[in-house]
## 1
Amino acid sequence: MSNAHPCGYREAMLSFAKCAVSSCPEHAATGSDRCLRHSDSPEELRHAASALLLQSREHERLNLSGMSFSGLDLSEHQFSSCLFSRTDLRGVAFRRCSFTLCFFDFAEITDCAFGESKIMYTVFAGSKIVQSDFSGCDLLHTNLNGIDCLDTKFDDSDLYFSRFIAAHLTSVSFIDCNLKKVYFSAAQLNQVSFKYSNYEEAEFKEDPILP
Amino acid sequence: MRLFVHFSVTIFTNTYLVGPDQGGDAILIDPGMMDVQLLKLIEGGNYRVRSILLTHANQDRLHGVKTLLKIYDAELYSNRPHIYDCTCHKLSDGDRLSLSGLDIEAMDVSGRAGDSLVYRMGDLLFTGDLLGAGRVAKSLNRYARSLLVSSIRERVLALGDSIAILPAFGPPTTVGVERAINPLFNEERGGQSRQEGA
């Protein structure tokens, strides 16, 4: 399992078996030698994955891509190199969790609680995030580019080096956050609050060039 | 295979360490700064740095190299024959290596003066400063920028969606994400016209 990194970040493993269907570029889902799409019993896989998530608090190299989960309480769990790509997460509690090198790209995240979690080198890009809570998080080096985010709070969070490039943010609050080196370029902001945050140290220009 | 990320709070760049699960010969990618935390990361995992891959031979990528070479008997790989006083294995587009049990492909996707390489290891792509989450490297002029964007589109975005992109600056991303979201490659996100006029 992952160990604490001396400077606060964590180590992670990142290698997955390929789907057994030779022409398929996807990774095999956890509990199967095939991806979810090529699985004979996707619903069984999902049930097994739910049981696995509840069975242990430390998770590494899980591929749950494309699965749907609702109502799970996964608070205080640790996730390292886990794939949640294109998952549908509803009412899932991830409070005080840690995530390192996890991928939630193009996920649907509704009514989920990530409060007080440590989220580093993780990807939420392209996700739809609705009525969710990221308050009190260390959300460092995290990719939230292109998210479609509605009625969600990032209050009291450290967002150092995270990115919201080309994101659509509506009724989203960043109250009392650290926004140093956070990029909002090309983002559409509607009813977004940066009260008490150092938004002067964030980047709102549209030039998509690395330093 | 185990992947570690180290962030230098001095020069704000990411260094990646890749090695076997149980320790042993390891690969460092872009060791911008050698500091105590990076040393602890290497030694704590029982690793010996045998190979150092550089995506781009600018100062941000080189600070750590001199120190590392005093500690470890490591080989350097880049697109130059020499770095400091050290001989480098000069790599070009398409060159393949087997280091620490891992197959690595060097790719020149810079589309400019050929001064950068990216390295592919299975589903991981180490892009240096050429391509990050929602951003690309600085170019000398619009023409060079256009070449770079075209080259990335043809070479990188043609790879599988699930390939993880691990840049020297900022957070990770994936090929699928950049293709769909990066404003430089996606017209719906404001795209090429904004970038070209930037």
## 2
Amino acid sequence: MERVAYNVGAMDFFAFTNDPTRNNYADIQKKLSGGDMEELFNEAKAAILKSVLKTQEGDRSDGFRRGHDACYAYCNISGMGVTLHLQTEDDGTGHKRPAGEGDYLLADSIMLPFFLLDRRVHVKAVYKPTNSKALTLMKDAIKEVAGIPEWNAFSLGKGNFSYISLDSKVIIGKVADMTTARREAQLAAFVRFICELTTDPFDLLVAEAQAQVTVRA
Amino acid sequence: MKTIIVEHMGIAKEVAINDQLGMILEEVASAKRGRFAYVENHVSGIGDPKCTTPGVSDKWFI
């Protein structure tokens, strides 16, 4: 819930600007073909806030949220909320429902609520081109600047990774090269240093994100 | 195969989880606050019908 409150707070910083060096609306402008960009911005911002507040209020009534609730389960691991994506099967009506064996549900993957520090891309994912409406593009543009996608959990499933370490302790696999091992050790040392400065690293990350939002606004 | 108790649609249920993921959850549970994770060759996009080529990357998390 802290994160939802942060998203609502961060959204208040955002205001419309026509300055092309300070916005990312070029593609949206082409789609809108003469419409009012500021009106579209306000509509998109209101829609994002409405969705975030709906989540905050615990309203799970729409079909998307009901489907999501059916396919995910939650557990508490030492005070940290972990989401499990369940194995699903088609229920015959085109909807996914959890599959099970006997009395058990089956976990397909786990999603850990960690904050992404850095990434090194080996193969860039390719997606089919989408023909999104101007409103969707504007919502995506606002979310990108707000950093909202960065709060997403990362998913670990069957064979979708070759190595994982936690606090520099190897859990699964063998690191590919020594450069990576050294970089990992440096970053782990940096994280330990930060943790000595604050009692809660999450507070530090929120402060950092808010500072970035202030600079960008 | 391990099982853990979860909350599913407001009800406590038992979920079976494979050994690899169970091991990760155990380590997460015993880690201190301020944990740091590194994942190599993390594949994303699988299962997304719009994804034609899954992405592969190394990621650092806290």
## 3
Amino acid sequence: MRVNGQERRPPSGGRRLLSDYLRHDLGLTGTHVGCEHGVCGCCTVLLDGRPVRSCLLLAVQAEGHELTTIEGLTAPGAPLHPVQAAFLQEHALQCGFCTPGFVLAVVGLLADNPQPGDREIEEAIAGNLCRCTGYASIRRAARRAAAAHREDR
Amino acid sequence: MSSPWFGRRVPPREDERLLRGQGRFTDDIPGPAYECCFVRSPHAHARILSIDTSAARALAGVVAVYTAADLPFGAQDLPLLIPHPSLGHGRTQRCLASEVVRYAGEAVAFVVAEDRYLAEDAAELVRVDYEELPVLIGLEAAERATHLVHPDVPGNRAAELLQEAGDVEPALAAAPHRRRLQLRFERGAAHPLEARAVHAVWDAAAARLTVHDSTQSPTSIRGGLAVLFGLPESSVDVIAPDVGGGFGPKIMLFHPDELLVPFAAMRLGHPVRWTEDRAEHFTAVNHERGQRHQVEVGFDDAGRLLGLDVDFTHDAGAYTPYGVILPIITAASIPGAYRLPAYRVRFRALYTNATPTSPYRGAGRPHACFVIERTLDAIAAQLGIDRVEVRRRNLISPGQFPYEVGVGWQDGNRVVYDSGDYPRLLERALEMIGPRPPGAHIGGGLSLYVEGTGVGPYEGAHVQVLVGGRVVAHTGVPSQGQAHATVFAQVVADQLGLTPADVDVVGGDTRRFQWGVGTFASRSAVTAGNAMHVAAGLVAEKARRIAARELEVDPADLELVGGEVRVKGAPGRSLPLAAVAVLANPVRYAFGGGTEAATQFVARERPGPPLVGDEHPGLEATGYHSPVGSTWAAGCHAAWVRVDPVSHRLDILRYVVVHDCGRVINPLVVEGQIQGGVAQGIAGAYYERLAYDAEGQLRNASFMDFLMPYATEIPEVLIDHLETPSPLNPLGVKGAGEAGVIPVGAVLAAAIEEATGLAVSEMPLWPQRLEELAAAGGHEPA
């Protein structure tokens, strides 16, 4: 499978979760695991551009697919991806544990729907839990990212 | 003192690293490590007849299986963290249970394997034979005491405490009006999105233990591990790296894993990690909030409080590792923002066969606030006086500070409010909440609260200017998302004439700073923030002394501005702070970074030794803040809600907060804390509950059934600040972390009561519960 544009060795065993493969086999620890049952969204990654829960997939299921994790949005030292930049501008995080999942959920939304309305934005982030921020800043960041995306086009 | 950074909306410096996925949480520590899994009791109360680990040990890839019998400390009770004279029957669990389990989820065995998958396989092979014992769930059952959680604790009573301020019985007897209320607050849980995690490395050659722990108190963990393993404290390092939320349970120590992971690493000579999964977090990590209150209040025709008598029971759970801090805080917090001529409060902390309780954001206060605010709403209803007016008539006035409440506080002192302006909080909230929205099924709620923050004993900080001019600032308290690296940098930057970007803050790493207590009880800004202020002030003084000798002026004529120490009024005469840092450390060998300026043939000729007077080398200092008492923050929340009459869906139409945490270091950070706290309050009021059945099984132990709200449930909170500086610390700050959550239950209870016409005397509520209340004819008496 390709992860962040690089061909990676296959997982060591059939029951390895994709989240564990990314985190512990590839060292991509920006993908977090908050519930291991597909509810919190901390482990969200993009599979062929669409957000998926990496804790609900076996790594072998991702073979032949293109994966993007939070580390793949921008290179170290390079400017932030516009969605990351919007989260930075709105201080849309506190502890940062749920943050990569939210960012990727918004990236996935904008790839799918370049001009989402507020309602669609809220729906798109309503599969991710945050226990720190109370969501207000995350909603603002997602709207800001959507507005920037519209302007870019 | 000019304060260019204090009070500014400085964007948190932590954010970019976390946004890039470059955070370093405990489970992110690289390198090979054995992984672990617990065997936990499926029963809420049972005798362990036998444990057979042979099949588990035989499984390929299993490295070790530990039961209590395998542990040198297996027969020791874990520490009782905060002893108190009222805690006549304190009990703590053992690291691994070997005789009796007293809650479902209690740890029985610990499996170490090459990876987590194998550890889980092996855990399933551990055979434990139990003899089930009668289970006690809920405060009513605990009080009836038809059987006992601990056979040697009569009546299941862990603790009992009676306090009285004024003379309650005559006050009630003489009151023109009296009212009794029964109020109930059920258990809740914090659920940080990073569950708990521990990683340990033992370097046998150096006899050094390094532990990463997703904890709120690394300094205490370190002390405890050193004692347990008989190591010098200086040979144990405990680091709280990035922590994915705390909210209270991570201040609790020791969770069994915090001992077992280091133990296994030492015993096996190999790094070991354990990362909790969500399912076990539900029952293995402490809960809070379960209390039942019997209230009797006396008041006059105008609704003024004359006497209040509260008798409550507190659900301790199966053990009391955190002592009786929670009910003590509740007892102290019930009077809130109101003058109370006579107050009597008695509590009993009772054992039940449920997960133990210890502080969860708000820690005893949401229930206290619920009690006094429901009481004031009841007075208003009984007298037919507006709810706001009843509050106005009872508020402590700004001229009454310091205000003594007459009961004891969690630091062993008495409760004395240091400062505040409660009438202004109320009036500002009324302005912000605005008129009742149009439509049916609308209700309003309003609540004030007072929060004792910044509790001692102390925190410290070490601040050092490096030879390159950057500053490092260290403290014992870790951050779980409170932007310490930003707010402490603001405080330090102001003292040193720098910007926050020049200051690198590290907290919660005993290698950097070994003293202190931890992050909890809305205390870090007060204790560690002021320690930073003190330490950086000492550094600034030292910089002036050193520069004064170089520039041949009086230190009093120097100021620190823009990265320089300069003569006031003569900006041309100055030294870069970096150069002062070089001069602070006389060297023999120039090692780059400008240090040649401090070598012995280059440095200015001196009559005495290179280290002048009592000066220590380095442009650095350590400072502490040890408060005389808590600082008392306060606030007022108000809301308009709509409750759908068919589905009972709750829509929060408007929610406002006026908050007073003294001088605000960074409004952006405080507003984030408040919005997040209110969200957690809403969650605990209408979405989340812990549904124990009579057998002590937590029936909704997953995020599928425990309904933590998403963005779709939480409104944007409108926030304003009122600043009454605390006289108790140099920065004038009070704590802010827990405030948002405290009054939400009281506010929503009042609002839902008005919207539905159902009398609300309990929290949490949920749609089916409203159905039940309606079916029971629970309509508000006229």
## 4
Amino acid sequence: MDVINLILLIMLAGLACMAVFFKDLLRAALSLAFMSAVLAVVLYRMDSPYAAVFELSVVAGLITVLFVSTIALTKTEEAVKESRWPMYLFPLFLVLFGLIDLLVMKGLFSNIPAGYGNAEKSFGATLWGIRSMDLIGQIAVIFGGVFGVLALFREKPLTAQDKIEAEKAKDGGHKLW
Amino acid sequence: MLLLFIVIPLAMAALMPLVSRLWKGLPDILGTLTMAALLALSLSQIRLISAGHRILWDAAAIGLPLKAGLMLDGFSLLLLLTISLISLFACIYSINYMEHYGAKGSYYALFLLMVAGMNGLVLTVDLFNMYVFLEVAAVASYALVAFGQKHDEVEAAFKYLMLSVVATTGILLAMSFIYLMTGTMNFKELGLMVGTGMSLKLIGLCLALFLMGFGLKAAMVPFHAWLPDAHPSAPAPISAMLSGVLIKVSGIYALTRVVYDIFGLPASVSQAMIWLGVASMVIGALIALGQNDFKRMLAYSSISQIGYIVVGLGLGTPLGIMGALFHLFNHATFKSLLFLDAGATEYATGTRDLSKLGGVGHKMPITSLTTTIGTFSIAGIPPFNGFWSKLLIIVALVEANHVGVAAIAIATSILTLWYFLLMQRKAFFGKLAAGLEKVKEVPFYMALATFCLAALCLLVGLFYPWVTAKLIQPGMIALSNSIGANGFSMFGQ
Amino acid sequence: MVMINLIFVGLLFFIGLYCLLTSRNMIKLLIGLEIMAKSAVLSFITAGYARGETFFSQSLVITFIVIEVSIVAVALALVINAYKNTGNLDVRSLTRLKG
């Protein structure tokens, strides 16, 4: 029984619950970053240092920066009022799901058969050799993200109709709730 | 050589920002030329595939010491052709339509990226690679749906994104379980290994996750909730691409590859697909009846027609697969034609509301004619192409002793004809509604694109023997060879 | 170790899904999405570790993390656009399309 691994995973789940139920968005984003750090340690202990460093630098770094800048850009006077009942019912659902999870996973993954080997000499050979089509996909998806953000952030001159629509939508948003 | 299908649109997409600064008209020209080049490339492969062969392309062929591979068989070629055709006409249409959106450089870049992603999806031999290209096309489509930055479009894009990411995370978990048990991600190797190593319950769980995930991308009922919001709000050429190609490539093609090549179409999945297909057929048609928004009605009609394709593929008999593949191609042509027409109507009159449109048929003859052709095709009236594909599916159903489902299919077809004729009457024929006196026909390129698509519907309908022999049959042979290859029975079948 | 990891994969997926189903703030929805993505990462690396092929699974995970970054970037751009259109971050103000 690997105790350290179990402790780390329990921390992971605990931080996830905190990230879901914190009212303050900034604290939720920071628990998400902390989750990434803990996950990086878990990955490192599973013989995956490259994935761990990627997770740490990209998810705990880049994505957290994106979240924090979005939170800063979208400050409102009144925070969105979350309803109360999900937080109270959550432990019940969690325990229920945990039991189902335990039984299912134990039944499904009892033995792991040997299969095709993917052994290569080094990590670089695997990434650039076997998974090279994935790299083309990565380039494409990065371009997609860049152009998507560019397209969605362009400034258009507002026509009079647009201004009326924006006012209507704002009233609808606040008045209903 | 096959790599060009992915690299050409990717390279052009990367060049688009530079190009759009040089001269204003250049993105249009380059985009259209790229699509034409891709279409020519895919047409050139028909000869090589027609006897049911597969082309395997290895990176070693061009001297790179990589182990990457791409594969083209009949099924992939059919989809490659569909993608190239529809994107060429959508590009021609965008020359005029996207004028008032601005930022054509970004638009064409995202469009080309979506095409590159879809091309990569159909050419790949690897399950995870398929997921990567699926996400490439999806990310491009999220940005394209929200391109106008207005409230409705952003709302639709946000809902689409949320639902889509849940689906793809489910697919990822299933892929990781399969990898855990078999150690490979290659389609061919997985097909050999899955029967031996995995317990039936695990196969059932993975299949359920795949059906849910790819079913959401294909907009099958009950995972269709994002489509009626996303397709009407997107700009018209993007609606045509989404409804005509993207849901088929990321949904139906991916699902079929996984279910046929890896699992060999077990009987329980076959049943599930037939049930889901019937539900999509009926529910899509019923809700489409009550719609007042032209494009929303077309979106629900897409859900209904996808039901036909899923039923045909679920059957697994050669005739059923042929009908489904033919209907896939036909639906791409006539649904994109109808969406482009709806966009043309909105461009000319400023509204999509069917109760406000009326009698614009005289003012817009070309649009009216092409919409009529599209209506007849989708309702399955000879000699247009929809008739033959629906007939094939219905005959396949009767042949496989699913007479009840065949009756439902015929009834849905009549329902389709009904609501489309209603739309035609409201929008194009009858008295000219108030405020529409100054409506004129749409600009040249929009009319050209819709006219070409309508001509294609008619030609495919007239020359269907050639089309089925050269294009559909290789795909059917490629798929039929994978059925029952694993020989395991599921759930006491 | 593998079994416990897989149990937590399921738990994390459930927590993320719960966040998606019950939150009203758009940014909270994205946080739920991120938690589900972490469960997928854990699942892949566990699979690689159990088979002894860590290089292969790390390549898959690195590709997946890059994809996840692009999705989050586009999603946040959409959230900012929605904020500009409606003035708040409430997901219930995005209910105009119906039927």
